[in-house]
Amino acid sequence: MNRILMMVAKNFWKVPGAYAKLCYYAKHTDEYPENVKYNHIRYILQLAVKSGNIDLQIYGKENIPKENGFVMIANHQGLFDILAMVNAIERPWAAILKKELYSIPFMKQLVYCTKSYPMDRDDIRQSMEVIIAATKEVKSGRNYLIFPEGTRSKNGNNMLEFHSGSFKIATKAKAPILPIALIDSFKVLDQKGSAPVAVQIHFLEPILYEEYKEMNTVELAAMVHSRIENKIKERI
Q1: Rounded CA gap, 112 and 225, in Å?
Q2: Which of 49, 171, 185, 235 is most exposed, with minimal Cβ within 10 Å?
């Protein structure tokens, strides 16, 4: 059985109302506090994980900075990555996402409610506008999630190279960087079937601005990539 269908079937009496409320929040996003919208998203996704035969294993939550205004850098394995992150992080955050996600039901409402930014990597001007806007928000105390691979890896737990430009938001905002290693997330929605699956999320030690301020973005991308890759190799 398809895992998404199983999630919906097990929560069929809750799905219509919860989704309708999410769509309402998405259309009136400026009228509601960020935590109200985010808590509703978490409610939906916690139901999905519980009913989807998913064992979500979270490690290193003590490494999440206590003060807001940090940038999360994670490897990208599939559609479940963002849903897993919502389950794992209790505080609201936004993301830089590829524009194609805005056409997928539920994902579309999620990005509107979190006021996440679409990025067109083929449009340099638009990409720079996103970087400038997100940098201002990080400085003001918002938290952002970025997938520097640019697209999901289609080779399981093997990572793609990081785009160094993805680190400009952190460097310009002089913000802490929180590396995150996702393991087996691709097995949830990017593979057929609904057999039980365990997904690991590892929050690594944050990298403070003082640690990377002398690096250029290429060097910084290589360092963060290495730390995430090492954690994945350690755990699989």
Answers
A1: 29
A2: 235
Q: Is 74:180 a contact under the CB 8 Å cutoff?
A: yes
Distance CA 142, CA 158 (A): 30
pTM of the predicted protein model:
0.93
Return the structure tokens found at 59: 């490690």
Eight-state DSSP code of residue 207? B
- For residue 204, give Cα distances in angstroms to 13, 74, 118: 38, 10, 26
Residue with the larger pLDDT of the pair 93 and 151: 93
Confidence band, pLDDT 50/70/90 cuts, at residue 1 = low
Count the Cβ atoms, other than its own, within 10 Å of residue 136. Answer: 13
Q: Topology of domain 3-235, per CATH? A: Glycerol-3-phosphate (1)-acyltransferase (3.40.1130)
**181: its two tokens:** 């290693």
